[in-house]
Amino acid sequence: MSKPLKQIHLAAHFPGVNNTTVWSDPKAGSHIEFSSFVHFARTAERAKFDFLFLAEGLRLREQGGKIYDLDVVGRPDTFTVLAALAAVTDHLGLTGTINSTFNEPYEVARQFASLDHLSGGRSAWNVVTSWDAFTGENFRRGGFLLQEERYSRAKEFLATANELFDSWRGDEILADGATGVFLRDAKAGSFVHSGQHFDIHGQFDVPRSPQGRPVVFQAGDSQEGREFAASSADAIFSRHATLEAGQAFYTDVKKRLSTYGRRHDQLLILPAASFVLADTDAEAEELAREVRRHQVSGATALKHLEFVWNRDLSHYDPEGPLPDVDPDVGDDHISKGRAQVRMYRDPLTTAREWRELAAANDWSIRDLVINTGNRQTFVGSPATIATTINDHVQADASDGFILVPHITPIGLDGFADKVVPLLQERGVFRTEYEGTTLRDHLGLTHPDSVDDRVAS
After folding, report:
1. Residue limits of CATH 3.20.20.30 in the chain
2. pTM of the predicted model over 0.85
3. Which positions ≥6 away from 424 have C-beta within 8 Å?
4. Which of 133, 195, 211, 422 allows an S-S link to 386, with CB 3.0 to 4.6 Å?
5. How many CB atoms lie within 10 A of CB 143?
6. How confident is residue 448, by pLDDT bands cut at 50, 70 and 90?
7. Per the annotation, does 151 bind a ligand?
8. Is 222 annotated as a binding-site member?
9. Three-class SS of residue 238?
10. Burial of 345 by CB count in 10 Å (0-12 exposed, 13-18 middle, 19+ buried)?
11. Where is the Luciferase-like domain (predicted)?
12. How do the residues of the chain divide into helix, strand and coil, expressed in percent and rounded to 5?
C-alpha cells in the first residue's frame, strides 16, 4: 500500500531588513509602511497560506562603529504590526518573534493572549533567546547569558507563560455577550510560579483565548535548541532546506520527540526558503544570477568578508582577490548585532577555505560572497518549483516551507498565482481554509482537548 500524500504547509516571511531583498529593484517598496504589510498578508491569505511570519530586531546592527546599511529603514514593533494585520485578514495565522531573554513572562503572555482574542485564534509565538550583549545594552538587565543559561531561561519562560495561559480554564468562567465575563471560581486567573529565573504570583487578566495558547515556534539549530523544540514547540524553523540536509535535520529532531512523550505529528519542521520564479527553468536560472548580483553589491561583499576577517576591509577592491592578511581573532568584533558572527566560529579555517575556493574558481571577493552566501532554495518554472517543494515534503525533508521573497511587498504574488494552483491540483495543498484558527491550519490539537503538554 502506498504511503498517503502529506499535506504541505506554506508560510510567508516578511523579509524586513536583511540581505535577501533586492533594494535596487524599482518594484521594491517600503519595509515599514503599513500598506506593505497589508499587501503581503493579503497575498498570503489569498494563496491559503498557514501564516505570516515577522522576525524581530531589538537593536540596529553596527559594523565598524556605524549603523549597518541594511538597517537604516528601522524595525517596527512586532505586536503592533500583527494586531493591525488581524483587522485586515480573516484566516491567516500571525506569527511574531518575541525574545525570552529581555522580556517577562507576564507581559508576553498578556500580549499573545490579547492577540489571539483580537484575531479569533490566529496568534503564534516564535520563542527566541539572545546571545548578544550588544543588543542587551538596550534593556535594564543588559548583558549576556551563556548558552545553557539562555535555554534554561527560555524553557522556564515558556513554561511560566503556559501557566498564565492555563490559569483561566473553560470550567471556571461564564461568558455573557451582554455583560462580559463572569468568574464561576474566584481562583480563575490565579497563578503562582517559583523557579530559578522567575518568582511571580498574582492574577492573569486575559481570559482563555480561542486557541488556549498561541502556537509556539522555535528556531534554534544547536543541540540545546533542538531539545527545546522537541520538548516544548509546535513547530521549528530550520535553515536546512536542501533535500539531504533537510532529511537529516528532520530525522534528528523528530526522533527526539518520544523522549518527551510526544508524537511524530506534534512538531512541524518548516525551513526558510527563498525562490526565483520565471516562465522557464532557463529564464529562472538567468534571473537568479541577476538577483544574486543585485543582492551582493561590492560594498555588501566587503562587509560580509569583514564578519570573518574582523578587520576594516573598505580599502580592498571587491572585484579583486581576497585579502592575504589573516583574520583578527580578538574578542572585540567589528560587527555588532549580526548573527553571521556566530556562523564563523573558526575564522582562520574559514579564511583558508575561502582563499582556496577563490583560487580554484578565479573568484573575486564579490564572486566568492555571491557563490557561498546567497543561493536561492528553489529556482525554476512554476511546475519545477511545485514539483521540488512537493518532493521535499513527501521525502520527509520538511513539513513545508516558510517562503522569503526577494522583493517586498509584491514578491509573493507570482508564487501565489502560479505555483500554489499546481500544488492544489496535486492534492497536496488546501483550496480553502477548513478551520478558523492557526492550530486548525497546522493540524495541531487544542491544549484543552488532548493533553500534549510537557511538564516543566
Report:
1. 9-280+376-442
2. yes
3. 430, 431
4. 422
5. 13
6. confident
7. yes
8. yes
9. strand
10. exposed
11. 23-393
12. 40, 15, 45
